[in-house]
Amino acid sequence: MAESTAPAAQDRRPDAPLADDDVNVWLDDVHVTYRIYEDRALRLLDLARGKRRRFREIQAVRGIDLVARRGETIGIVGRNGSGKSTLLQALSGLLPVDAGEVYARSQPTLLGVGTALQPNLSGRRNVELGCLALGMNGREVDDAIPRVLAFAGVQDFGDLPLRAYSSGMRARLLFAIATTVIPDILVIDEALAVGDEEFRDKSRNRIKELREGAGTVFLVSHALDTILDTCTRVLWLHDGQLRADGDPGQVVDQYKADVEDRRRRAAGG
Ligand SMILES: Nc1ncnc2c1ncn2[C@@H]1O[C@H](COP(=O)(O)OP(=O)(O)OP(=O)(O)O)[C@@H](O)[C@H]1O
C-alpha cells in the first residue's frame, strides 16, 4: 500500500490542498486510458462489413492521488510501461484525464527527450523561440541567448542548424532553454540521462537551484543514482498505480528488491 500524502476524503473539495500556499500540484484520483484502434487493414475491412471499429484500452494511470509541495524534487521510478511518462504528461496538462482532477498552481514546464526543437533552425534561433515562448521580452531574450548557449556548452555551434547537433547536445540545449526562467513546476522526463557526466553535474546543480527557488521538480529516470542524488521524495509507479511514496532511499530499495525478485522468478530461481 502506498504511503500517500493524498488529502483525506473529507477534504476532497476542488481547492482544499491548494488553499495551502506550499502546495504546487494536486492530483486527485487521476486516471488516464489510451484507446488504440487495431490494425488499419482490419479496420477498413470492418468498416466495409459495417462492423464497429475494434480497439483496445490501456489503463496507463489508475487512480493516482498526490500532493506536491514547493521545494520538493519528486523522482518517479517504475518498470517500462508502468505509466511514468503518461503521468507526467497528464500532470503537465498535455494529456486529458479520463477521471479525477489535476490542479497546478501554474503551468508546468515539461522537459522531455521528445520535446520539440526545430531541427532546421540554428541553436541560437531555437533559444530565441524557446525564450519567447517562456514569456521573455526582446531584451531579456537577447541577454539570455549567450547564457543559454554557454550553459548547454554549444556556444561554438550557435549558428549551426540543430540537425547538426548530437542527441546529447540537443538535450542539453533543451534543458538550458527550459530552465532559463525558473519555472514553479518543472517536469523532467529522462532528459538528464542523455547528457554526459559533466552536463549531468551541471543539470543536477541547476535543479538544486530551482528547488531552492521554492519550485517543485518532477523527475522520471531509470538512473536510480540520479534519482537518489537529486530527489527529496520518490514515487514508485507499478501498473499505473502508486506502490510507494516517500523517502528516496527506502522507496528505491523497495523498488530494487522487487526488480531483483522478478529477475529471480523469471530465471526460475
Ligand atoms: N501514445 C500511446 N498510445 C497508446 N498507448 C500508450 C501510449 N503511450 C503509452 N502507452 C501505453 O501506456 C502504458 C504506460 O506507458 P508509459 O509510456 O506511460 O510508461 P513508462 O513507465 O513511462 O514507460 P518507460 O519506462 O518504458 O518509458 C504502456 O502500457 C504503454 O503501452
UniProtKB/TrEMBL annotation:
Name of a matching Pfam family: ABC_tran
GO CC terms in record: membrane
Keyword Transport found: yes
Domain annotation ABC transporter: ranges: 42-264
Keyword check for Methyltransferase: no
GO MF term set: ABC-type transporter activity; ATP binding; ATP hydrolysis activity
Keywords noted in UniProt: ATP-binding, Nucleotide-binding, Transport
Stated family: Belongs to the ABC transporter superfamily.
Name listed for the protein in its UniProt record: Teichoic acid ABC transporter ATP-binding protein
Species name: Egicoccus halophilus
